[in-house]
Amino acid sequence: MATEQTEKLITVTPKAAEKIEEFMKQEEDNPQYLRVYVQGGGCSGLSYGMGFEKQPEEDDIVIEETGVKILVDSYSQDHLKGANVDYIESLMGSGFKINNPNVTKSCSCGSSFSTE
Known about the structure:
alpha/beta, Hypothetical Protein Aq_1857, Chain: A, five-stranded mixed β-sheet, three-stranded mixed β-sheet, about 15% helix
């Protein structure tokens, strides 16, 4: 497990941090970390995932950003470098949005992407 201190792997907006903390408090098992990851799937090859964890795994980088402790596994690190997690509220709905500068192609449904 390493702690990312230099270049920001992931940033979190204040609104997203507020919602993450709110959702964490609703969890029964008292999670301490938000995991942000990339997995294979979708029509463009990759998709995002987020979930709560009680502790880091051996290959995780731990980032503390806007009061939130984030875990990123070694596979996801290259795909998420420079990404920003935001929380959007609109008439169409609300939810987390990951803005990722590494995306070279995304599908029309907006749920999958590819990087170089």
